[in-house]
Write a structure and sequence with these properties.
The chain is α+β, with helices and mostly antiparallel strands and 151 residues long. The chain has one domain: Cytidine Deaminase, domain 2. 23% of the residues lie in helices and 38% in strands. The chain has a 9-stranded mixed β-sheet. The longest helix is centred in the middle third of the chain and has 14 residues, at 68-81. It is globular. The model has no long low-confidence stretch (mean pLDDT 88).
């Protein structure tokens, strides 16, 4: 699946889409989420993998808090195995709606990730809705932009 914003292309691997689809939120289920991993080459962000929710995360009906340590271990492992090619590039979580939209908390989080991690590259957030709908946003230099689905 490919999303775009201006000169940036976000290419989400099919295996990642399959994993994310397993966590669609229905019938009062709690939110789920994790981290996105991949690489950036020029203006293409390639999402190759993601972490999945674990028992240390906090899952609520309208809130998900990722436990950094369990997810960070997986990110570090991918980074080491790939000789530094694959790294953290963003976050994902679910919403219980057909057309997901970021909340104020989501937008603040996307801004905070870039500041907190002191990253110089664009940071991605994917919100998984119901029936295979997605909101994909990108934080470029402190500005958040909604990406358009291309394919």
């Amino acid at each position: 699946m490919i999303y775009t914003y201006n000169k940036f292309t976000i290419n989400i691997d099919t295996s990642v889409i399959q994993t994310l689809s397993k966590f669609e939120q229905y019938n009062g289920q709690n939110e789920s989420g994790g981290a996105l991993m991949g690489y950036i080459a020029r203006n293409e962000l390639k999402i190759l993998d993601c972490t999945q929710p674990n028992i240390f995360d906090i899952h609520r009906r309208y809130n998900f808090i990722r436990n950094i340590f369990g997810h960070q271990f997986i990110i570090n492992n991918k980074y080491n195995i790939s000789n530094g090619k694959i790294n953290y590039i963003g976050e994902w979580h679910t919403h219980s709606e057909i057309n997901p939209k970021p909340s104020k908390t989501d937008l603040k989080t996307l801004m905070k990730i870039r500041r907190y991690k002191n990253v110089k590259f664009p940071v991605i957030m994917i919100i998984i809705g119901q029936n295979k709908t997605y909101w994909v946003g990108i934080n470029i230099n402190g500005y958040i932009h909604k990406c358009k689905r291309y394919i």
